[in-house]
Write a structure and sequence with these properties.
mainly alpha; Rna Polymerase Sigma Factor, Chain: A; Arc Repressor Mutant, subunit A; 2 domains; 70% helix; elongated
Amino acid sequence: METLTDEQLLIEYRNGAADRFELLVRRCSQELFHFLYRLLGSPAAAEDIVQETLLQVHLSADRFDAERKFKPWVFTIAANKARDYLRSQKRRPEVPLHALTDPTGGSEATFADLLGGSSVSPSLRIETEERSRNIRKLVSELPAPLKEVLILGYYHGFAYREMAEILDVPIGTIKSRLHSAVAKLGSLLTAARSACDEFVED
């Protein structure tokens, strides 16, 4: 069973193999949780929406198009439920970022490195822990559409086409939002650094 694709597992599940769903849940739950936690900033809310998403997968299994990929489909469900949650909360939660390096030239790290999550070495994570805490407020100022593309693209590695499918927007919009998100985050970092330097000088 471990060699079956996600798509095959879902198809077999809807054809009566009940144990396939358990394996599918084991495969996707953790990544869905990380996606939703980064988007919502609340582990409790992320866990709840993971459960809602998986329930929706169960309920919609018969309607899954076997020609599609499972992962973008399930992330589409999760993203829609996260938007519903945010609308119900009427607030913009913070998104924790854990892997920030110095973008002023002192480091060759790219924004992909900044948002690369699991690829960061322990020593770099320790060095940047304080900066990561300080940056949360800045990231929370990004509009929700910009947060979405950053999280999907950098944390979860989705291609432009897949992000367009998940968010139900054209590929051109994805590219534009990603460019805007990186530019906005860069300007926020620069402004914050300047304010900090002025405070130190005073």
